[in-house]
Amino acid sequence: MGDDKAAIITGSTSGIGLGVAKALAGSGMNVMLNGFGDADEIESIRSGLASETGVDVRYSGADMSRPEAIEAMVDEARAAFGRIDVIVPNAGIQVVSPVEDFPLDRFELLMRINLFSVFHLTRLVFAGMKERKWGRVINIASAHGLVASPYKSAYVAAKHGVVGFTKSIALEGAEHGVTCNSICPGYVLTPLVEKQIPDTAKARGMTEEQVKRDVLLAAQPTKEFATVQQIGALAVFLCSDAAKQITGAALPVDGGWTAQ
Ligand code: NAD
């Protein structure tokens, strides 16, 4: 599927983003990784993926909360690959707090990373996609883009925002060969989820084991976590010709959570 196509996957040094980057690189696309972490570990992920797949794998440490850093990352990707055909805005953080105590700076930071960066990345690559008459915007939203849980007001607001943004962009790209969809994962056992278990336990007065069983998987009828490989495979499918008429959709990968 490659045809020298190139993708930027934000927040891809870990978890779902890394799973999507591996899947897209495996399908033959050049990829730009992004995210935070230990420099040596990131370099070993980058070079390992390049040698496994034979595609060009680059890395940018751009901070998705800063529009000027997003612009610099896009310039770097364009210089390296000559084009950007696919974006997967995925970088995200979680903050768990009752609304009356919600730290103001954390609410704003979450919005900048989880929602505003999706707008910035899209606006910077959209004209090129339209010109080439092919593009894929694959937003990693969440089941929390469709339904809510308590104590996650910032996250739920941002993810519902991503799902709405997706629909608008789908309409803007519709006659130009550019599709835009949201993938809405349920719980995937990544560092993001592991980190919120202690806070959720505190907010609900539960043990960490109870949170996993009675809060996280309680919402998921299959009683199984979704995997990063399953999300990566869906992203590859959305890039295929078979998915050309799928646009503006919010696609749950949530073990039946949002069917309830
Ligand atoms: P993760 O914590 O494993 O990975 C997050 C990635 O984002 C990391 O690479 C991190 O370095 C990067 N990141 C964080 N802040 C950044 C910033 N300011 N700039 C650039 N990169 C930044 O998380 P994950 O679980 O893989 O989550 C990825 C996405 O999937 C998020 O948008 C999250 O909301 C969404 N999601 C996750 C789950 C889940 O259960 N894990 C469920 C639904 C949706």
UniProtKB/TrEMBL annotation:
Transmembrane segments: none annotated. InterPro entries: 3-OHbutyrate_DH (IPR011294), NAD(P)-bd_dom_sf (IPR036291), Sc_DH/Rdtase_CS (IPR020904), SDR (IPR050259), SDR_fam (IPR002347). Pfam families: adh_short. Signal peptide: none annotated. GO terms for biological process: monocarboxylic acid metabolic process. SUPFAM superfamilies: NAD(P)-binding Rossmann-fold domains (SSF51735). PROSITE patterns: ADH_SHORT. One of its GO terms (molecular function) is 3-hydroxybutyrate dehydrogenase activity. Belongs to the short-chain dehydrogenases/reductases (SDR) family. This is 3-hydroxybutyrate dehydrogenase. It comes from Rubrimonas cliftonensis.
